[in-house]
Design a protein that fits this description.
By secondary structure, the chain is an alpha/beta fold. The protein has helices at 5-15, 29-33, 47-53, 58-63, 71-85, 89-102, 112-122, 127-135, 168-172, 185-201, 219-231, 242-257, 281-286, 302-311, 322-325, 327-340, 358-380, 386-404; strands at 19-24, 138-143, 155-160, 206-210, 261-265, 292-295, 315-318, 346-347. The chain has 18 helices and 8 strands. It is globular and about 60 Å long. Bound molecules: zinc ion (ZN). Residues 191-406 form the Amidohydrolase-related domain.
Amino acid sequence: MQPDALETSLYDAMAALDIIDCHEHLGPEKDRVESQVDVFTLFSHYTRGDLLVAGMSEPDFRSLSDHDIPLQRRWELFRPYWQEIRWGSYARAALLAAQKFYEIDDINDSTFELLSERMQQANTPGIYQRVLADTCNIRAALTQCGSTDVGTPLLKPLMPVFFDTRSWEFLSNEPCVADTEVSSLDNYVEAVRRYVVRVKSEGAVGLKMVSNPYGTPNREEAAAAFDALRADSEMYLADPNPLKDYLADQAIAIGTEEGMVIAVHTGYWGDFRQLDPLHMIPMLQRHEKAKFDIYHLGYPWMREALMLGKGFPNVWLNFCWTHIISQRFAVAGLDEAIDLVPMSKILIFGGDYSMAVEKVYGHLVMAREDIAEVLARRIRRGLISESQALELTRKWFWDNPKDLYSLDL
Ligand SMILES: [Zn+2]
């Protein structure tokens, strides 16, 4: 079924909007243009999961990016699994990117070589500008690449505050303390503060954590665990533990004092039982002044994530990644979010890509389709006018992320 005239009209109006992309993993552009690209660059990221689940072995997947193997041979490895995953939302973003940037209607036996040639030809300085700014109207993209040295004002970094407390080796090598000697828990927390102050001065606008199960922070128990870990390099501390609970809590407090947004991955990834959005509730209650940017609508716990937005003034709901997890889910989530939460709380788009910058466009097309579908239905039911609906899209794509992250644009 083709989108009707109303959906098309909404889509076209949204295509003219300036956009703040609310989450990427894009690194400096030179990393992309210095790498050899081909059709498999479009399958280097989330589609990996689909290919492995379809039965592709990990070594075969890795060989897709091995340019010493002829492209034809790699295509033959890929082809049977591509047939199985090509109708999914991840694959659609790749197909849309191939159509838009390389005039390749379908990725198949007769096009993979030409697509690869065209991608390599276009892999030149300015590709971020051409894809993100010129094609997508993206004026700023929040990115997490583990560095504030992103090389362009188009990218606004967020920095991780993950604490791997499993061993002293891991803990003492966390980026926030990697360049300092830490001899006590208080020492460690002070190093975290210096790190937050430094990355902020380098342009970072937020910190990133995950919605693991966190216990109530207890400084004494955390200090005991810290000292034990430091004294015994062989010691292994399982998750969850009081040290991690305390450090995560301190990081939120410090980030908030320093004016950073706390971005939180919720749901889907690996053993996603450890990433239930509901794990965040004690943190939301303890840190009333913090601003929590809750990512991904907690898939598959969509209603749980929505309820965080419903019940807590310090929560924003970020639809990054959702439209390529499943367009059905994103449509349902947005429709319910409009029923549930103030319109100032919705951040509607984040591509969530790293090397395959072209797929940001594919994802954005899917996001616009989802929004148009939801809003057109509401307009037809007489719940909102078309101009009011477009006013909402402007808030979701621009005003809300600009305000939440205090972006100077
Ligand atoms: Zn991400």
